[in-house]
Design a protein that fits this description.
The complex is a heterodimer of chains A (277) and B (113).
Chain A lengths: L1 E5 L7 H13 L4 E5 L7 H4 L5 E12 L9 H5 L5 E4 L2 E4 L9 H5 L5 E17 L2 E8 L6 H12 L5 E4 L6 H7 L4 E7 L2 H17 L3 E8 L4 H9 L4 E6 L2 H8 L4 H4 L3 H12 L2
Parallel strand pairs in A: 1-8, 1-9, 2-7, 2-8, 9-10, 10-11
Antiparallel strand pairs in A: 3-6, 4-5, 6-7
Helix pairs in contact in A: 1-11, 5-6
Chain B lengths: L1 E6 L17 E6 L5 E5 L9 H11 L4 E4 L4 H9 L3 E4 L6 H9 L4 E2 L4
Parallel strand pairs in B: 1-4, 4-5
Antiparallel strand pairs in B: 1-2, 2-3, 5-6
Helix pairs in contact in B: 1-2
The chains are: A alpha/beta (277), B alpha/beta (113).
Amino acid sequence: MKIAIASGKGGTGKSTVAANLAYTIARSRDVVLVDCDVEEPNLHLFFPAPAVDVPVTTPVPEIDPDRCTLCGECGRFCRFGALAVVKDCVLTFPHLCHSCGGCTLVCPQGAIREVPRTIGRVACSRPLPRLVLVSGILNEGEVQAPAVIRAAKMFAEGHPLILYDASPGIACPVIETLEGSDFCLLVTESTPFGLHDLRLAVEVAETLGIPAGIVINRSDGEDAATVAFAQEHNLPILMTIPFSREIAAVQNRGGLIGRDLPGWEERFMDLFTGVSP
Amino acid sequence: MIVCITARAAGTEAPVEQRFGRAPYFVFVDTETGKSESVENPLVDAAGGVGPRAAQVLSEHGATVLITGQVGGNAARALGTGGIKAYAYRGSGSVADALAAYTAGNLQPIPLA
């Protein structure tokens, strides 16, 4: 089973829920936790352990100057400006390339081939006997987050139980993370912003046809609007985490409330039971 | 020599556009014959990477001088490699005004990579 943890709004507690859920499950069975927030991965902070790094590459064009006639077709074709034919040479801008391969197809001389370029890495570790952590890490300044997310997910592929921690928002990286998931846990907070972005995230899950449930984090007890929204959309509220200084203190020192606070391991186990049929 | 001036509309009376890659028009003026050609820029609403693509458009039209407000890093590299010199016109005048200022030697060159 593949469970994605997403939110829409940033900072609602996706990683808190993902880390604690993974920790709790790993007490009794094998689980792989994949950090798909590749622009700012943070799950390794909860689970420090030595990791093995594997580079992630993406194909970019390389020009054979002996064959190139400077006809300009590649530059006119590339909508990302990754190639420009100026005067007597073809310039490439690898960081603008989206690796579509189109330039190799339109070149009438067959002068373009694709070569790998490193844009990030995947770090694998085993912080607990039954927990494998796979973190996708996109290099600074790079734009191709989905490629690193795909690579990170591939490392976990085939495992019977996988958790995907998504990035905030509802753009390409989140779609890439949700793709192929069996369930989507949407973490929200009881604020107007939390509800606004939850609404967007629910639309994404609905569009992708992925069943979803809600976790309300930092609840101040005034969750009526969120509860009404959940009922309207037939979404179960699977867990409510209160706004509490005690929880914040554990979180701030990189701790896990499922491990460090009594009663929370059981609650996260209940959350898992609520998700898995 | 062919000079390209970025403009908000076609023709030499059009106001100069400060942006390079997203300028609505490129006005190419042949300084020997005085003839001008206005080319609509298809990249105005493009998602990104407009700098190198605009540089290729200039190269294809044989321009060796560009007059505009400012250029970004990718555009600068493409222009520099293509042997196109860039000059900054920060006024609110027309294409003709900008060309006159360039001819009079009053425009500062934009450093290219």
